[in-house]
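User: Modeling request: complex.
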Amino acid sequence: MSNAYSEGLAVYAQNSRQAFENHLRTLISIPTISADPHHKADIRRGAEAAVQLLQGLGCAVRLVETAGNPIVFGELINDASYPTVLVYNHLDVQPAEVANWKTNPFDLVVDGDHYIGRGTTDDKGPALTALMAMGYTQQCALPLNYKFVWELEEEIGSPHFEDFVKGSLQQLVADSVVVSDTIWVSADKPAIPVGLRGLMALEISLRTSEADTHSGLTGGAARNPVGELAQIVSECYDAVSGRVKIPHFYDDMVPATDQQLNDFVASGFSVERFKRDHALYSLRSQNVRDVLRRIMAQPTFEVHSIGGGYVGPGLKAIVPPQATAKVSMRLVANQDPHRIFELVKRFIVVRHPDVRVRASAVLPPYLAESDGLYLKAISTAMEFAFDRKPALVREGGSIGAVITLAKYLKVPVVMPGLSLPEHGYHAPNEHFDWHQASGGIKMYAKYFQELATLKP
Amino acid sequence: MSNAYSEGLAVYAQNSRQAFENHLRTLISIPTISADPHHKADIRRGAEAAVQLLQGLGCAVRLVETAGNPIVFGELINDASYPTVLVYNHLDVQPAEVANWKTNPFDLVVDGDHYIGRGTTDDKGPALTALMAMGYTQQCALPLNYKFVWELEEEIGSPHFEDFVKGSLQQLVADSVVVSDTIWVSADKPAIPVGLRGLMALEISLRTSEADTHSGLTGGAARNPVGELAQIVSECYDAVSGRVKIPHFYDDMVPATDQQLNDFVASGFSVERFKRDHALYSLRSQNVRDVLRRIMAQPTFEVHSIGGGYVGPGLKAIVPPQATAKVSMRLVANQDPHRIFELVKRFIVVRHPDVRVRASAVLPPYLAESDGLYLKAISTAMEFAFDRKPALVREGGSIGAVITLAKYLKVPVVMPGLSLPEHGYHAPNEHFDWHQASGGIKMYAKYFQELATLKP
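Assistant: Request completed. Predicted assembly structure:
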């Protein structure tokens, strides 16, 4: 059967191209921009189009209201005794500044094998591949149940996703979760992230006067809050090397093993391409292994801004009245963001008692077991679909939904990415392509087959 | 004669009140805001009104054109053999945000002894007192010649004043210069600044990428220019104490002597009032002597801003592409701003080779001889006018015109201030008062008398 399944799948994927493009065109035509309140109605229309799609494939679908945007939940239960997979994607998109695009971002352009439009690769295209794959596995009567969770607030940090999960625990019960919302390290090689960095963001602020004062009149006696915050930031970390200087900051972290670093390197990562892709003029390190360790397996300290001074044209010789530093740390397993917050806050406040420190975002890091059955199954499926062994890497960013699903459902989460670095995640002229889309359909179908026979 | 002179002066001052108020009303009604190009025509009208005023008192007047605003130059030469005094004031004013004023800033309000309006104390009122004083000394046929220089770009840093002085050296020849554009330390006691701090402003900038990058994707490997500039600022100085850490920064400075510090303290300065006047919540020092040393006789290092990061609402977890720190140092005698610039630049660039450092403003410090004949004469005149011995203090800021006049005319400059801290220099509801104005008329007339008999 397995051979027939594979051959049939290849034919199915090829034949479904027109349907995939039609569905993608429908979804792309609705500007589901979650960051912009003006698009509330579009978000609703996008959710309703998704309901249609899922119903068209036989799912029972609910639009679940939240305090923010609705969440689309579809399920297809073939038999209560079968294993159940939960597939997460998101249908909201980044804003698109039309002036920077070569085409209308909300009008799908099919250019040969390329699909150009906002949301094609992040994350509407990947969402559709899972759905199309289910079309095939249902034809094959695979003994599996399916649940689809399509979020519409991922791009704004999933503010209501945890409430949704907590309120829908019964409906969400599944044996495993699959999330495709990540990017290969190189187009040459499939990549499966097995870890995500967490995030601990904070605002450090200090006010020492009511308003600007004249630096000739007060300078020398007046405190300078921008200067003091610059000093605090420098006490926290060495900006040149990136090393955090706060005692015990690294205590709980699990360093990447040599084998894991080998896996990162095997992803096809190139330092030069990384610099080019992100338009970085220079890096803290040139060594490929060290760069990968830094972006995948090391915590960071980042200053987003030190605001409060005069930034207009020319010189305004003032002592600024207040300053706020926006800072965040990417965390890795097993750093606890709350413990880190207390550590950083105490470090600062002991030295600078009138400085205020408040947390502005908290996401724990995530690290999957690197030898789990589900990871093995998705690796097999990816190799089947793309004809190359996938690299086990880690995502340097954070995906709130993964953390939440892992926390509440307490089942393995796998993250087979389908996007390529050149697809332009969040960038103008975002695109997807049929090679990745058809590979995605095959990957999901193969993975579903693996799941149907998996004996955990 | 001296007694008759003094008695006549008291009567003259009293009788001239109406004329003073009329002249002040005329000048205040013209919004000579040099910072705002929309007021070019008002600047011209202000200059022409000043010409009228000077001509009315018998001066020969020229409007001297510069690459910017014109300068009003009036002279009254009684006899080539007499000594000549050059009186500098400025007739341009700070902008006035009408919403913050209780009255129309450009419509003089006489409220008892108070004169409310933009420019009343800075510097139109003081300019008029000198002129009115000349009215008296001319009546007395004092053997003295007078030159008046009224600038219309002081509030924007006197960008064309040096060109004017260089181009008018013959006309400006004088035996001494008097500049009244400073503020008493306390209303209780006249103050004569004998020093000005200089200024060395610079911009420190660093670009490490083309645009914002996602701190999840690049963080750890990407350089953070805001973080690096914060570190550079902290390497340059300790923001908590204010101490500059750059080697040799203090080498050339002349520290204030104990006697000079005693003079500062004798000004009536109060730490609590200083905090209140400038709305400062806390200071680097609470000790009156130390605070005065810090604002009058010590160089400073000030960060005006570290720009370049994301300062909008909420969290945007980016690595910023570039940063610029606006920094300036107040300098004291005998620090050479050019030498200091080279020192700071080398200190930074040796450690951070791709950081750019450029000078944005340079003003040398100024320190008068503290036992000169002219200082003695103005002290006598101030004590005569205000019935109290003046304190010899220093101005923490810089007055470009003083530096320029001292440099090119090579004669003593005295700086008898007439403004009070509560007059609200540069602030809404700026005002002057008849006590200071009539005192100013007496002070100038007495000083002119001293000059007429001075044998240098």
